[in-house]
Design brief:
Layout: H1 2-20, E1 39-40, E2 45-46, H2 53-68, E3 73-74, E4 82-98, E5 104-119, E6 125-139, H3 144-147, H4 151-171
Parallel strand pairs: 1-3, 1-4, 2-4
Antiparallel strand pairs: 4-5, 5-6
Length: about 170
C-alpha cells in the first residue's frame, strides 16, 4: 500500500512537472525562406589584409549551412534558388588580458562583413546586413614561439564561430 502511494505520488510529480514547464527541444535544422530549396555561397570578397581569410570563412559557411538546413548547399552562384553574397570588410583584434611579459594572452576579435541573401529567380533580397559584426574573445598561447604556430587553428576556430553566428542570424530571421 505504501509503495503504491509512493509510486502514484512520484508519477503525479513527474506528470505535473513536465506538463507545466513549456520547454521543448528545438531542432538545429532550420528552413531557408519559402521557395528556397538550394543555396549557393560563392567565395566572399576579401577587403582585408588577412591572407586567404575569405576561403576559410566561405568554407566554414558552406559546412554550417549544410549542417543547419536540409537544402543542398554548394559554392556556385548559378543553378541554385538563392545565393549568399558577402564581403569581409575588417578583421581586427584587441588584447584584453596581458601575461607577465606584456604579451597579450586573450584577445577580442571583431569581424565586420556585408552580406545578403538573394533569390536568384527575381534578384529579390531576402536578408541583408551591410554591417554585420561578429565579436568573440579568444585565448592564445603566451609563448611567443608558439603564437605563430597557432595562427592557422585560431583562424579555423574564428571561421567556424563566425559561420555559426551568421547562419544562426540568417536562419532565425
Amino acid at each position: 500500500m505504501l509503495t503504491r502511494r509512493v509510486g502514484i505520488g512520484l508519477l503525479s510529480i513527474l506528470i505535473s512537472g513536465s506538463a507545466g514547464c513549456g520547454y521543448r527541444v528545438q531542432s538545429s535544422v532550420r528552413n531557408l525562406p519559402a521557395g528556397i530549396r538550394s543555396l549557393g555561397i560563392p567565395t566572399f570578397k576579401n577587403s582585408t589584409t588577412q591572407y586567404r581569410i575569405e576561403q576559410r570563412f566561405t568554407s566554414a559557411l558552406l559546412r554550417e549551412f549544410a549542417a543547419r538546413t536540409r537544402a543542398p548547399v554548394n559554392s556556385s552562384a548559378t543553378g541554385v534558388d538563392a545565393v549568399l553574397l558577402g564581403e569581409i570588410r575588417q578583421v581586427f583584434s584587441n588584447p584584453v588580458t596581458y601575461a607577465n611579459d606584456a604579451f597579450g594572452s586573450a584577445f577580442v576579435v571583431t569581424v565586420q562583413i556585408a552580406a545578403k541573401l538573394v533569390r536568384t529567380g527575381d534578384s529579390a533580397v531576402l536578408w541583408e546586413n551591410s554591417d554585420f559584426l561578429f565579436t568573440e574573445r579568444y585565448v592564445l598561447n603566451r609563448n611567443v614561439k608558439d603564437f605563430f604556430s597557432e595562427e592557422g587553428p585560431a583562424l579555423d576556430r574564428l571561421s567556424q564561430d563566425f559561420a555559426a553566428s551568421l547562419a544562426g542570424t540568417i536562419l532565425s530571421r
